[in-house]
Structures are given as structure tokens and as C-alpha cells.
Design goal:
Elements: H1 2-23, E1 44-46, H2 47-50, E2 65-67, H3 80-107, E3 108-109, H4 116-119, E4 153-154, H5 168-175, E5 183-188, E6 210-212, E7 215-219, E8 225-227, H6 228-231, E9 236-241, E10 252-257, H7 264-271, H8 274-280, E11 285-290, H9 309-325, H10 331-335, E12 339-344, H11 348-357, E13 364-370, H12 377-386, E14 391-396, H13 401-413, E15 431-435, H14 452-458
Parallel strand pairs: 10-11, 10-12, 12-13, 13-14, 14-15
Antiparallel strand pairs: 1-2, 3-4, 5-9, 6-7, 7-8, 9-11
């Protein structure tokens, strides 16, 4: 069936070409205005010769003949149309052949026989490259002399490396993809506040100043006694990265300091719902919360008493955050990320020492105290007056009302206004001292509003927002 259609198509094309040649000449004159052609039998040539290299099929009734004449009668049956097509086909074929020859010439190199010293063969002529073969003597007829297969020296093939297994972390670093699911984990850090065997600042007393049945312990200023391994032996920290967190967008670390009688898993994670509040904020932030004294009425901060200890801790935390993010190379971004310090209750001590002695003041984006201003008013006031590129919020209930009133009066004397309600936007230099008389134990989840930490984060305009769920990339 296909052969029949090809034959019919060839016959139709031949008829059209023949009719066109008989009616219109190369000068554009119709056939009836030209002299009648005179053709003899020897002037007839097959169409297949007039149209070389044209694969238009075979003619069903043999190859027709076209008259080819000279002189005035040449207008009778001009083969110019078919000849033009044939010449174009020839030019294309020649160009293809030339390209192929150039490709072969680029791949092949001149033969390189062995050295005369090693093989006894004549050495290369002066000026030639080492190992070149002396040119062959051309044949008497001038025809090129063919080379033997042994003399043909092909270029060394390009070595294509085998594909290797690409780790997901490498792809994540190149693409810097947002998280497709939240990451919450308790991980040990060597630079955490505890265990600690140093001294208490301002005295020569060691921190482990007591013992119980030969086991080291610490006696607080109020007289409470805690075993070192039970209360001051947990070096874990709570990390949380919300779904959709993007290392490329403006981000911050929420550094949370818990109060008395707390553990990270029971209180910070589940009761105070810090990971949930981070996610609820919709902001591009992560959580880092170190464990202080485990379930004890003690505000000791261990290593954080030492100069620059908080900076070293955040450097180690950046490494853990990068692992949770799935891209170890993002550690540098976490290490220079701005920090929002949140101190609740007894966490005021870690917040004050971190601002004064932690070595991270230039990274602090803001400070939030949740019913926590039990002391160090001068430290916080010094931070507010000197760090005008950060915000400060202190919300208080009954237990810290006096300390906050003193701070407000000191700020007013220094000419720094302090709002008594939560500002709509927490810009650089914003200061707010607000009253929220609710139960102290529930202050992290109910203060001036439910979930106050999420509310604070939503008011920071410099933070990026989490992308919609349909735009999270798979990691």
C-alpha cells in the first residue's frame, strides 16, 4: 500500500513539473509566445538524470523523457526547476561530507612511531614534534598514499566519570529548599550550661559546694540541696524548625530561657508549647532552648556565667540546626542569624548575663521578659539605652510589678518612652512595659493574649513569613 501511494505521488509530481516546464520559461514568457521547439531523439534524456539525488519514489510507467535542446528552441522544455533542486541537494551533500571530513580530522592525530633510539627507526626531522612520523614519499602518480591501520593514531578518548550517589544534603544546599515537615528534637550540646564544675561569679566558692553520701551536690542561696548528676547533669537543648522554614528568607533564632521547676520535654515542649507557638507565628524563625537546673527552684546558669559562653553555645547550636535543616553547609547562616531572647520567670538571670557578658549583643534583635524582671534592672536599662537597633518588651503580673515600675521610671528619666500596651509593630528601638495580671505558672501561654510568644513574633516586620504549604519543596 505504501509503495503504491509513493508511486502515485511521484507520478503526480512529475506531471506537474512537466506541465510547468512546458508553459512557463525561465524568462517568464508563456509557451504560446515562444518559437516551437525542435527536438530530436538524441536530445531526449531520462528525468532521473535531470533530477539527480531526488528520492521522490519510482515512476509507475517507466522513467519519462524530457527534451533538452539548445539555441532558441531551449525555451521549449527548460529543466531549470529540477536542476535547481538537484544542485541544492548536491550542495547539501557536499557540505555534509565536508563536515564529516573535518570531524574525522579533528579526532585523528598524526602517527607517532617509536623513537629511533629505542626502535632503530629514523628520528624525526628537526623542528617536528617528538614522536612525529616522517612524511611518506608521494607516489609517482601524485595519488595519496594510504596508511596502514597500525599507523592511524586516534586521540585519547575522553573519560566520562561514572555517576555517583548524590546525597540529599548536597541537593538541599544547592537549591536551599524549605522544610517539607517540622523538625523538633532534644539534642546534647557540649557547651550547654550544665554540667558545670566552675565557680560562682563574685565569689571564690565552687558551684558544687556540697555532697550527699559522697556524691557532689550544690546548695543554693536559699539552702536547697540538689545532687549534681540529677539536677545539673542534662546538657540537652530543645530545637524546633517549623514546616516551611527557609534559610534564604529573613530569619531569627528564638533563644528561650525557662524558669524554676522545669524540664524541656515536660514543660517547655508540651506545657508551655514553645514549638507550637513558633509554628503558629507563621514567621521564619527557629527555637533553641537550653536546659538549666532540672525541675529545681534554682536560677543558676552554669557555663553561661563565663565570658563569651553564650556565643560559643549558639555556634554549637547552629551546627545542630543545620543538621535538622538537612544542609550542613547552612551552619554559617545559622551562626550569624539574629537572636530574639525570651526569658520567663527565673530565666531573667540567663537573659541578663547573656546581654552583658555573652558576646552576642550585636546579634540581638529583641528581648522579651515574661513576668521575669526579678533583678538586674540596670543591665536591662543599659541594653535599652545603648542598643537602639533592638526592641524590648517586659510583661508583668503581680510578682514582678515592682521591678517593672522601677524600670519604667528609669527609662522616663533617661528620655526613653515606654508603651504600656503591646505595640502594633515591634520596630528597632521600640520599648514596651505592659501589665498582664494572669497566673504566673501560665504566663507563657496566657499573658496579654493567648500564646504571647507567637504574638510577639507576628509583630516583628523584619522577619520573613513561612511560605504556603503548597509551595513547600520536598527534602
Amino acid at each position: 500500500m505504501q509503495a503504491t501511494l509513493s508511486s502515485l505521488l511521484s507520478f503526480v509530481v512529475t506531471g506537474l513539473l512537466f506541465a510547468w516546464g512546458m508553459t512557463i520559461g525561465p524568462d517568464g514568457q508563456p509557451a504560446h509566445r515562444r518559437p516551437a521547439p525542435v527536438a530530436s531523439s538524441h536530445d531526449m534524456v531520462p528525468l532521473s538524470a535531470a533530477l539527480p539525488r531526488l528520492a521522490i519514489g519510482t515512476f509507475p510507467f517507466g522513467t519519462p523523457e524530457l527534451p533538452v535542446t539548445s539555441g532558441v528552441a531551449r525555451y521549449a522544455a527548460p529543466p531549470l526547476f529540477g536542476t535547481a533542486i538537484a544542485e541544492r541537494a548536491v550542495r547539501v551533500a557536499q557540505a555534509d561530507q565536508s563536515s564529516l571530513e573535518r570531524l574525522v580530522a579533528s579526532v585523528m592525530r598524526a602517527p607517532r612511531p617509536a623513537d629511533e633510539e629505542n626502535t632503530g627507526q629514523p628520528a624525526a626531522s628537526p623542528g617536528s614534534r617528538p614522536g612525529a612520523v616522517p612524511p611518506r614519499t608521494p607516489s609517482p602518480t601524485g595519488a595519496p598514499v594510504a596508511k596502514s591501520p597500525a599507523e592511524t593514531d586516534f586521540a585519547t578518548p575522553v573519560v566520562v566519570p561514572m555517576p555517583r550517589l548524590v546525597r540529599r544534603s548536597e541537593v538541599a544546599h544547592l537549591l536551599r529548599l524549605p522544610l517539607s515537615r517540622p523538625q523538633t528534637s532534644l539534642r546534647p550540646i557540649t557547651s550547654a550550661p550544665f554540667p558545670y564544675q566552675g565557680r560562682v561569679p563574685g565569689s571564690d566558692a565552687v558551684f558544687l559546694n556540697a555532697s550527699v553520701d559522697g556524691r557532689p551536690a550544690h546548695r543554693t542561696g536559699s539552702g536547697r540541696l540538689y545532687l549534681a548528676n540529677e539536677t545539673y547533669g542534662d546538657n540537652r537543648s530543645l530545637f524546633h524548625l517549623p514546616r516551611g522554614f527557609d534559610i534564604n528568607a529573613p530569619a531569627a533564632i528564638v533563644l528561650y530561657f525557662h524558669g524554676h521547676g522545669a524540664t524541656l520535654e515536660r514543660d517547655v515542649w508540651h506545657r508551655q508549647q514553645l514549638p507550637r507557638q513558633i509554628t503558629m507565628s507563621g514567621k521564619n524563625v527557629v527555637l533553641v532552648a537550653p536546659q538549666f537546673a532540672v525541675d529545681a527552684r534554682d536560677s543558676s546558669i552554669g557555663r553561661f556565667w563565663q565570658s563569651g559562653a553564650l556565643r560559643r553555645y549558639l555556634d554549637d547550636a547552629a551546627r545542630e540546626l543545620a543538621r535538622l535543616y538537612g544542609d550542613p553547609k547552612s551552619e554559617a547562616a545559622f551562626a550569624r542569624m539574629p537572636v530574639v531572647i525570651v526569658g520567663y520567670s527565673g530565666g531573667y538571670l540567663a537573659a541578663a548575663w547573656g546581654l552583658a557578658n555573652g558576646g552576642i549583643r550585636e546579634r540581638v534583635l529583641g528581648v522579651v521578659l515574661l513576668d521575669a524582671l526579678y533583678g538586674y534592672n540596670s543591665t536591662f536599662q543599659n541594653f535599652i539605652t545603648r542598643q537602639r537597633n533592638a526592641f524590648f518588651v517586659s510583661a508583668y503580673a503581680q510578682s514582678t510589678a515592682e521591678g517593672n515600675a522601677e524600670l519604667r521610671a528609669s527609662l522616663e528619666a533617661a528620655g526613653i518612652p515606654a508603651a504600656n500596651t503591646m505595640p502594633t509593630v515591634l520596630n528597632k528601638g521600640t520599648v514596651a512595659v505592659i501589665s498582664a495580671p494572669v497566673l504566673h505558672r501560665d504566663y507563657v501561654t496566657r499573658a496579654w493574649t493567648p500564646f504571647p510568644i507567637a504574638d510577639v513574633l507576628q509583630r516583628i516586620p523584619s522577619l520573613g513569613r513561612i511560605a504556603p504549604p503548597d509551595r513547600y519543596a520536598s527534602r
